[in-house]
Design goal:
By secondary structure, this protein is mostly helical. It is 53% helix and 3% strand. The two termini are 36 Å apart. Belongs to the BROX family.
Length: 381
């Protein structure tokens, strides 16, 4: 599956210089419609106006996406929503004549090696459209987190405005809402034999995972904002870090930061036990930091290759502070540890907070008054 901003070198010319995109936010693979003769396939089944609009919108989405490489997000959003409105109307009509009579085809953008999607199910078409909307939201969030101008910022220093970070969080919540809608409203309406043939990134378990991952990445950005804010208290930072642990199922780097902040809040005393616990936390953090760097490098070097972004936010802060503090703490209070192998076992348990970020609720776009009869429930028959 891989991140859409990755670059695969298979089949490329050795003399051709490959551009490996930078990735901060995981981006879904983008698929675009393939031209289909809808006029011939739908003749006598749907009105000519509806057929022409369907064909026009599919062609528009394909051309804009291919010409821009998927970067013209604002130009793609409007035709996608209009196309989705038409699909909703066709499903509402409950027109059995259309189901199975037209082939909807999609292909991965810029990846000639991947197979096309081809199906005759209207629910599958709706799933693919909303999946593309989620991919565009993630791509826009990723672009906001990559600085456009590094001049004057120093080598390797990431400069992204707080406004861009907040907008990226909103887009990740939006993407999570799209994916959550797919698993809740669309996949249950698709026959098991069709679902079994879905590509990996459209399987129910993967969509659920990606929805949660988007929330986790949004929390990570919020944590980065808190780290750089003088007004944010340690309690706020700990809560965000612990929430990120829940989202990522104790993923390496978020567990690292939450352990450190938890230590700072729980062990402020001067008793030997407090110093010993502090040493345990920082030594464990130093070890996990090393594992995190190795995991990041391994991920980036695995095909398809992704260029690792420079450290920023939480990880930049940790990479600078942890080695120094861990060394000082172990030098001063290391003698309090009776057995070195108990370092990891001595870590305090993290508090369990209620998650604050939830997927943005998604509703299907309304149909135009003259197209189809409206009903209060988008799928009420």
């Amino acid at each position: 599956m891989g991140c859409a901003t990755s670059a695969c070198a298979v089949g490329e010319s050795k003399n051709k210089r490959s551009i490996i995109q930078e990735s901060v936010v995981f981006v879904l693979q983008l698929r675009v419609p393939v031209q289909t003769d809808l006029q011939r396939q739908l003749k006598g089944v749907a009105s000519k106006t509806t057929i022409d609009r369907l064909a026009c919108l599919r062609n528009q989405i394909q051309l804009v996406a291919e010409d821009s490489g998927g970067s013209a997000i604002s130009e793609l959003r409007a035709p996608l929503e209009e196309y989705l409105s038409l699909l909703t109307g066709l499903i509402k009509k409950k027109d059995d004549g259309m189901e199975g009579c037209v082939e909807f085809k999609w292909k991965p953008l810029g990846d000639g090696g991947s197979a096309e999607l081809c199906f005759t199910n209207l629910w599958m078409e709706m799933l693919t459209v909303i999946h593309m909307m989620a991919a565009l939201a993630m791509a826009e969030a990723n672009s906001l987190m990559i600085p456009k101008n590094r001049s004057g910022s120093g080598h390797g220093v990431r400069v992204v405005s707080s406004g861009c970070k907040r907008d990226a969080v909103d887009l990740l919540l939006q993407a999570s809402g799209y994916l959550e809608f797919c698993t809740r409203e669309i996949l249950p309406r698709i026959a098991p034999d069709i679902k079994s043939k879905l590509p990996d990134d459209m399987q129910e378990s993967v969509l659920q995972t990606l929805s949660i991952q988007a929330l986790g990445q949004g929390t990570e950005i919020q944590l980065g904002l808190a780290v750089n804010s003088k007004k944010a208290t340690l309690s706020v930072k700990r809560r965000l870090a612990c929430e990120q642990v829940i989202y990522f199922s104790q993923f390496i780097k978020c567990h690292l930061y939450s352990s450190i902040i938890n230590q700072s809040l729980c062990y402020k005393g001067s008793e030997p036990a407090c110093h010993a616990s502090a040493v345990c936390c920082f030594l464990a953090a130093s070890e996990i930091l090393g594992e995190s760097k190795k995991a990041c490098l391994s991920f980036c070097l695995s095909p398809p290759v992704t260029r690792a972004p420079p450290m920023w936010g939480v990880m930049k802060h940790l990479s600078q502070k942890i080695p120094e503090i861990a060394f000082k703490k172990s030098q001063m209070y290391g003698y309090l540890l009776k057995e070195e192998e108990k370092v990891m076992q001595s870590l305090p348990e993290l508090p369990n907070f209620q998650l604050s970020l939830i997927p943005e609720e998604f509703e299907l776009p309304e149909m135009e008054a003259g197209s189809f009869a409206r009903k209060p429930d988008p799928f009420a028959y």
